[in-house]
Structure formats: structure tokens, C-alpha cells
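User: Predict the structure for this protein chain, please.
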Amino acid sequence: MKATIPVLIISTGRTGTVFFAELFRDVYPEVAAYHERGVSRPIQILTNAHFAHLFPLKGLEYAWRFLKGREISTCPRLFHVDANCFLYGLAGLAPRLYPGLRVVHIVRDPRTYVTSHLSFMRQRRRSFIANYLVPFWQPNPFLVGELDWKMLFTLSRFERFCWIWDFKNRVMGSLEGTQIPYLLVRFEDVFQSENPEKEFDKITDFIGLPRASSIQKRFSQPTNQTIRQTIPVWMEWLPARCIQLHAHCGERMKIYGYGNEPEWLAKLTISEAGKVP
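Assistant: Here is the predicted structure, written as C-alpha cells:
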């Protein structure tokens, strides 16, 4: 019997990971597909504590082996797919935990990711408690050493999640060019495309699965949606807010092909921005 091939679909969250887990589970009998399988949340917390220089890598590896280590070794299918934003940092930190690993990195435009995440956590009690009250639920820009402590009381939650988008995507993107097979996929190319099957074909080709057919309708049925968008779309932002996001995310936005709209570029050129809504 062939060894199970582990596949991680990782992201910042708010990128359709529930959808991907359900689609793989429904379409491919040779795939055991899960969304945030098992005890994953403590792994995220310990990963962020490690990035903050407060928890050793060996401790993180031990926690994974204790909490999740048997998931792949006991899997009866050829492929084990875990669509899991909680594991965003693990593949780069300890790839030896996943022999034969293949990584799919889903990236989303930070302008829609940040608004979606903030709206979602305000409307879901569990998400609100986690993001507001649980230490190291998200990486800490001050303990990581990327932002000056002088900004501690002036950094808005909006700006913090702009930094989180950039930091997490840098961590995941560091896999490119390593020995770990890595595929970058843009959220918009899957869920806002006239031909989403074409992008999904890239994912299945990368994993080593046959191409699926007649699944286009599935992409118009998103799951785990934000109940109500509480932050305006970026086209309605004042320039000050655009400049805040660009300061944290601008470099990687360019890498991923975001932020080329004339309207966006015009907002960034305004020096007298006014009050952020």
C-alpha cells in the first residue's frame, strides 16, 4: 500500500478553505479532505508564540506530534488534504512533520481580506473571543519585532490586520523555491473568475489528481460567508485608509498583482488624506 500524501491548503483565513475541503471530499474518493482537522487551534497559538520568541520550535513540534501526529499515518486514503489556516507557519518551520508534503497557498486581496475578517469576527462570537481575548491567536507585530513599541497604543485594529495579512503571506510565501512543492493560487482567480475550473485544474494537477468536470456551479455556492459586511468596500475608503493598508501590504500586493486600479493609485497619491472613516 502506498504511503498517504499529505497536502496542506493554507492561507490567512477568509479564503474559501471550507469550500475546498468540501469539494475535494465530494469529488475525489481517493482523498480524505478536512477543514481545520482535529486540534489545530493550539498549534496556531504556539506557532505565533514561537514567532514572538516565546516558545521553542522543539516544543511546537512535540505539540503537533501529540495533538495531530497520527492523522496522516492512520489515513486510509491516498491523499490527506487539510485546508487549515491555523497551520500557516508550520510547513516552513518544521517540514519534517509532513513527509512528502505538498502546499497550496491561497492568497486574497488584502483590501477584501481585512474587511471580511473584521466583519466576520464582529458577527461570530467564537471568532470575536479568539481575536480579541486569546493571547497569540494572531501573530503579534511588536513581539515579532517588526513594529516599534511606540505604536502599541496608536495602531488601529484595521492596521493590525493589514500587517497580519502581510506577515502571514510572507511566511507562507517563503516556501517558494524550497524543496517543498508549493503552489500559489489567488482567491479571486477561483471565486471571481468566469472559468474557475481552469484554476482548479492547476490545483489538482499540482496535487496529482485527475481533473474534475462539471463542477463550475459549485464555485457559485460559497460557504462560511460573512453575514453582513460592516466595513465599506475599498472604493468608498478615504485616502488615509488606503495609505494605511498600502504601508503594510503594498509590496506584496504588487507581487500578487493587486492594487493596479487607477482609482486605487489615485487615492494613494493624495497627501492631505483627512480623517479615516
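DSSP finds 13 helices and five strands in the chain.
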